[in-house]
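call fold(seq) -> tokens
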Amino acid sequence: MNYRIIDANINRANEGLRCVEEYARFILNNKEITTKLKNIRHEISLYFNINYENLIKSRNTIEDVGTNIKNISKETKSTSVIIANLKRIQEALRVLSEYGGLNEKYRYEIYTVEKEIMQNISKNKCTNIKQALLKNKNIYLITSDENFTSVSDFLDKIAQNLKAGVKIIQYREKNKSASEIIKTGKLIRQLCSMYNALFIVNDRIDIAKILNADGVHLGQDDIPLIEARNILGAEKIIGISTHKPEDAIKAEEEGADYIGVGPVFKTPTKPDTNPVGLEYVKWVKENIHIPFYAIGSINEENISKVVAAGASNIAAIRALMQSINPDETVGKFMEVIKYGK
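ret:
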């Protein structure tokens, strides 16, 4: 038995299985597919466990001529991440069958899983992973540490909103040093993981990479979207603030995963920016095909007007960060989004 071949392909299969398993579990919310993938992972480990010491001894990464060979092709659609990993698993299982005697039934099971996953993606109308990630995440909190006397209180307010049902947190910080942002960002990232929420970093692509954020949100004057995509890769979410139809059209054409639409109403967060009003919300609803989040002084009193204009996703700063009772505020937002009143 060639232990180096076996070891490399066990690792390849397990990495691919874990990637697809997490997608089935957290995005598709499909218990059956998740269980199948987990069982295959465990059974492969058990089958080769008898030779585990030999596999470890056989590793020789330094002299492995294949470690520096790069794949020159680049996929742009994030569905390709899952497709690529399914193919990776199938190839690894074929090698494990040929060199290690692994039962080919596992490879055939993966073919079935591949079909089931693609059917689920189609059923959910999610053409790529990022659309699936954004699906049904209707309330988006953008952080502000204004009025908080400690980092602990700031984080506690974020946690309260997450517990209440917020599913996207954008960490927005304009005044602190990079080291301070990273330190606090790590804690927010942990909170988002606990509540299965997306973690987005405002503006700072470098910090988004360091924190392994789910994505980044860019303004009109920030780094161009295309350059951001080259830096972050195809699998990360990129959102763009837009203030007029031309902004929205450009963002969609360049591959934004979602856009911010606003400010809908006059906001102290951007005192020099004129509100876009409800008409722009209506226009985006009728003309743009990627998810959008209405933003700009939206609160419990005016959210029904915004939803009536066509918004099904709301982003907010003060209404959520300064809420005395996030459970009530988030609950009200959800009710209006669902029922229109």
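The chain is about 55% helix and 10% strand.
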